[in-house]
Amino acid sequence: MDFQVVVLAGGTSKELVPLVSKEVPKALLPIANRPVLSYILELLEASNLKDLIVVVEGEEAAVRVGGWITGAYVDRLHVEVARVPEDVGTAGALRAVAHHLTASDILVVSGDLVCDVPPGAVAAAHRRHDAVVTALLCAVPVSGPSETGASGGKDKAKKPGRYNIIGLDPTTQFLLYIATGAEVEKDIRFQKSILRAVGQMEIRADLMDAHLYAFKRSVLQEVLDQKDTFNSIKQDVLPYLVRTQLRSELSSNGMSQAEENWNGKVASQDNQALSSQQLPPGMIPTVPSFHELYAFCPNGSSPPKRTHKCCVYIASKGKYCARLNSIQAFSDINRDVIGEASHLSGYSFSAHNNIIHPSAELGSKTTVGPQCMLGEGSQLGDKCSVKRSVIGRHCRIGSNVKVVNSVIMNHVAIADGCSIQGSVVCSNVQLQERVVLKDCQVGAGYVVTAGSEYKGESLARKEKSQS
């Protein structure tokens, strides 16, 4: 489709400590024993988008990610790995590779996205509308252990977080308003001029910006050049493009910005059912709706020069879409990919609805339940129980061990009598006899001493300070 693709793969994200480390950057965190980055690369490959720049923060992370891509995708994708400094932000990362971008349209996608929406569909919608940006929107995932989980009772109150407030035109093709993050807790202010131009705007709080965007390269380049303080695509670049799409209309109608605001309150309690907001009675405009504005112009005049279109592609309800941007999300996505979203895993499941590698060994009276995964070369002793969990490669697990709702990475040694629930155990960890972990994260290489019990703790080796 002659789109160039930029995959923003991050580095060692602070929100994911102790799961990430110098050895395991975010892009290589395992989802069902595959690096999370593999999910988006294979999704792009399936849409025949094979010309990629993968942007990684930090030198060590870039070397590791580049080495893995070379081994895994040789002869399949044309990938250039670009290293940028840590913490440059998503807009900063794009700015750093802008000189490599030559295609008329660019697809920008987060390397932590696990989803089954074809990027080619977003690219096609972008071309069809001749938009400057087209953003993929998905249903907000509900976070936390499933109702069947051991801690299901307490988690019934878990609701989707408020991700964004999004204003759409009545056809739900044009993005007219977006507020993200901290902004959404305040009263929402809409410009009257936008409402006057569109006639009606549907306000949605049940959609997530999936961090997959198609951009017209010339416009993206211009914004990155002119707005050198912009740090984030989602919080700076996208809202700016949305705000400026009617600017020529605004300046020509002679109203000052001070008179432009109309307050709309978004009910914080009811996240889903936010109805269409209209101008107060007596102010309903007579101009054509937003999308018709582009079809023709009153008095046969040509369209205003500064007008551009910001579009959305809304994934259908049954599609899976989540981002690995927190420890909770890491656990949720691992559970989903071997559970209800198992089609994403790339593995075939057994008659017992689980994945047990042929080389794995199970002791007597050991059970591995449905929606579980057991990696290559791993061994479990007698009378073990594994439920709704992923166990990595070459793990040595003793007898009478319980693993529930957890992710165990590679080369982990778990001694007899341990109990692990709702936890993440990173590679090369040793759990000595009778360790009990509940809702914990254990960083790579850590040793948990015999008989220890931890709840809600993050255990990690101290990083050696640079002297």
What does this structure look like?
By secondary structure, the chain is an alpha/beta fold. It has two domains: 3-327, Alpha-Beta Complex (Spore Coat Polysaccharide Biosynthesis Protein SpsA, Chain A); 350-459, UDP N-Acetylglucosamine Acyltransferase, domain 1 (3 Solenoid), CATH 2.160.10. Helices cover 21% and strands 27% of the residues. It has ten helices and 36 strands. The strands form eight sheets. It has a seven-stranded mixed beta sheet, with helices on both faces. Strand 2 (30-31) and strand 3 form a beta hairpin. 41% of the residues are buried. Mean pLDDT is 84; it is low at 145-160, 248-289 and 294-300.
